[in-house]
Design a protein that fits this description.
heterodimer, A: mainly alpha, MetI-like fold, B: alpha/beta, Rossmann fold, 6-stranded mixed β-sheet, 4-stranded antiparallel β-sheet, 8 helices, about 25% strand, binds adenosine-5'-triphosphate, binds magnesium ion
Chain lengths: ~250, ~250
């Protein structure tokens, strides 16, 4: 753990120095010095960026909750019951490869330009990953794992709690972590219209105003946000899946 | 009482139906123990799964206490061949699992400390995950889980196979203490003739697959560690059945 933190710090320092060097060589407003960007973040973070960040974060959390709330039960159902799987699998497989961003116009027609359609887009990107991860991991549980609970006559509630959910947790968390990168890019895109709030709006607005300093500040904050979420999920995965011991 | 009559078990595979047990009859009186020996693949584990109420791939009659096997009603202590520990639970949570299912209202099983001490499961082992245990340690955790449940019937599938000779004898003693205290009806599957003679009031020898009963012996050496000529003769007789030479050996 310590090693990883150290490595991350080294990486960040390297990026910072490279950026600094580049800005010194080029000396153009399109590449401002990172020192000035950091200063700028310090000045406008609490007044401006934090609000936009909170909006983006709120949308991500809403989309994530929705995706887990729908994807987890559906995944469990498909993994547990052959019949449910036969019914739902064609639907999942047909829609799975469709690039979700292509659905954006339809989603906007149906849910408008506001928060609804932005959350739905995040939901669409995450939910399929969740369904498939959960279904596949439940399918892969060896039969013997059910013996102890089955021989105790445990109700389904306990089998779900003690076997199905813990068994699917590792793949479930990996799926979310991987899909999150796509989700953030799509969120950025959807925030460039139909709203006055969000990191996407902030960055593109700064760009249109030719305020490169603010634009860079937005990009740095958005990156740090992504990094932070990645880190939290990585940590949670390590903790909750430590019984696997492979990590 | 455990009663099995005309039991046949089968597996449906890609190449068709294959029989695992054929026309099997068995009766273990209430509070009695029965040891089952037989060659690998003869259907011993299949039989225990059926007795535990988790397999339905059979025909014939199976009853425990004059009722059909219902794990929801009965407390069945089942120790599967691969110990049946859940990999995502610590040893402590694994051991408490069966208690938790049967007694949701109380947190800590009665007599937990005594049994853990008797099985040599220390505080440090309790915090580990199953993959961090040796085979023998996993086996002891599995025994602890079954013993703590204070079951109506105890079904053990080669429960001492991964233990060294000394530990095995110790664990057999622990089993006896428990069996005496709780008078639990027990079926134990083993590969060792000596173990069968020590733990089984009745010793049943099964044929190779599909398994059927070759011999039923009322065992006079039950709970005795013995080395007499008579004992050796009994051992040889059972070996004879196992190796296919039958009763003439
Ligand atoms: N899931 C299964 N599908 C198909 N055949 C099976 C299955 N499980 C067991 N069998 C077959 O049924 C027979 C009995 O298996 P079982 O596991 O009961 O044997 P066993 O007596 O416990 O063997 P061992 O002493 O090696 O544990 C074997 O021939 C085996 O190949
Ligand atoms: Mg077996």
């Amino acid at each position: 753990m310590k090693k990883r933190i150290l490595a991350s710090c080294l990486g960040a320092a390297f990026l910072f120095l490279a950026w600094l060097a580049l800005s010194e060589i080029v000396r153009l407003p399109i590449i401002p010095s990172p020192v000035r960007v950091v200063e700028n973040i310090g000045e406008i973070f609490f007044g401006t960026i934090a609000v936009h960040g909170a909006y983006s974060l709120g949308r991500i959390i809403a989309g994530l909750l929705l995706a887990v709330g729908v994807g987890l039960p559906v995944g469990v159902l498909m993994g547990w019951s052959r019949r449910a799987d036969r019914l739902l699998a064609p639907l999942v497989y047909l829609t799975y490869p469709v690039p979700k961003i292509a659905l954006l116009p339809i989603v906007m027609l149906l849910f408008g330009l506001g928060d609804g359609s932005k959350t739905i887009m995040l939901f669409l990107i995450l939910v399929f990953q969740v369904v498939i991860a959960v279904r596949d991991s439940i399918r892969a549980i060896p039969e013997e794992v059910f013996y102890p609970l089955a021989s105790l006559g445990a109700p389904f509630r306990l089998i779900l709690l003690e076997v199905l959910l813990p068994a699917s947790l590792p793949k479930f968390m990996t799926a979310i972590r991987v899909a999150m990168a796509t989700a953030i890019s799509v969120l950025f895109f959807t925030e460039t219209f139909g709203t006055q709030y969000g990191m996407g709006y902030f960055i593109m607005d700064a760009w249109l105003r030719v305020n490169y300093l603010e634009m860079y500040s937005g990009i740095v904050v958005l990156s740090v946000m992504g990094l932070f979420m990645f880190g939290v999920m990585d940590f949670a995965e390590r903790y909750f899946c430590r019984w696997q011991g492979k990590m | 009482m455990i009663r099995v009559s005309n039991l046949s078990a089968y597996y449906d595979t890609a190449t068709g139906r294959s029989m695992a047990l054929e026309d099997m009859n068995l009766c273990v009186p209430k509070g009695g123990t029965c040891a089952i020996i037989g060659p690998s693949g003869c259907g011993k584990s299949t039989l225990l799964r059926i007795l535990a109420g988790i397999a339905s791939n059979y025909e014939g009659e199976v009853s425990i206490a004059d009722a059909s096997v219902d794990p929801e009603v009965l407390s069945i202590g089942f120790i599967p061949q691969n110990y049946g520990l859940l990999p995502w639970k610590t040893v402590r949570d694994n051991i408490r699992l069966s208690w938790k299912v049967k007694h949701p209202e109380s947190l800590v099983p009665e007599g937990e400390e005594t049994i853990l001490a008797r099985l040599g499961i220390g505080e440090e082992l309790l915090e580990r995950f199953p993959r961090e245990l040796s085979g023998g340690q996993q086996q002891r955790a599995s025994l602890a889980r079954a013993f703590l449940l204070q079951p109506d019937v105890l079904l053990m599938d080669e429960p001492f196979s991964a233990l060294d000779a000394i530990t095995r004898e110790e664990m057999q003693e622990v089993f006896f203490e428990l069996w005496r205290a709780q008078a639990v009806t027990t079926v134990i599957v083993t590969h060792y003739v000596e173990e069968a003679l020590y733990l089984g009031q009745t010793v049943i020898v099964l044929s190779s697959a599909p398994g059927h009963v070759l011999s039923v012996t009322e065992n006079s050496f039950f709970a005795r560690r013995e080395d007499s000529g008579e004992y050796a003769a009994q051992k040889a007789r059972l070996r004879g059945w196992l190796t296919g030479k039958g009763a003439e050996a």
